[in-house]
Amino acid sequence: MQSTTLGDSKKRRIPIFLRILLPFLLLIILFFVFGMNNKAATVEKYLPGFDSSILSQAQALTQVLKQTQNENSAFDSDVAAIARNNPNVQIGVAVMPYPGAAIKSFGVTTSFIAASTTKLICGVDYLQQVEAGKFNIHDSLGVYDASYELQLMVNQSDDDAWNLFINLLGQNQIQQFASSIGLQSFNVSNNTIAPSDEVKLLYGIWSEKLLNHQDTQLILSYMQNTNDESLIPAAVPQGAVVYHKYGELAQYNADGTGNVLHDVGIITNNAKTFMIAIYTNRNDQLDEATRTAVIQAITKDAVSIYAP
Fold it and tell me: Would the pTM count as exceeding 0.85?
């Protein structure tokens, strides 16, 4: 009987994960060896059958990320300059170019007293439950039907309408809803939120990830031609489209918070869209004129950078 060794009886094979990984490792090495010029031709030469469109997509994504980084850097410098010129005002800003970019925060990143900007959370929560069949938007709520009360709450920033929806939904439900969509900074009990979470909410609305198309259009319609267009809408160029929700609370608080003036919005200009939240606080005095100017200046700068 012929003897055999282990090496004779079994052929040595490269593990399957290495066979999958090796072409990509070779691709990375080729990038470093041959530089960034003529990548597609190089890859096709050494890896026949490689889909060069993947490389083109990666290049395009790299360009977008580089552009976004440059935009964020420029905007960061501009917001910092505005803050230096207004040392008595706390300023927190968050921006998200649409689609697909990350949220970038500037200035104060922690929570502010939200005032009326979080009425949007309540409105979206309610409309989700309408879509689920729990409520009917034509049912009576207070003096009017729920549809009109929703319009009053968002478009006219009516506090009585807001209280009707809070009582209908319940604070626990509103908090759970906010948490479920990733608004981790929101606290319903003291109505505080970070600017970045407000931008996250705006993104969810605009992208129709939170509501169906009909209800998205409904709440967006309430965010136009509101009873105060002096903040973000007053600062955009002619032809730009704005959907926004302002918030104002004129009161002094012993803990150093109060006299807040905010605006959050979705801005489209020259076929480019971005979401922005601008929060300001000056507890020692209302100083509304100064902070109106601050919000307008930040808005103009954001449009020039993210949607020129």
Answer: no
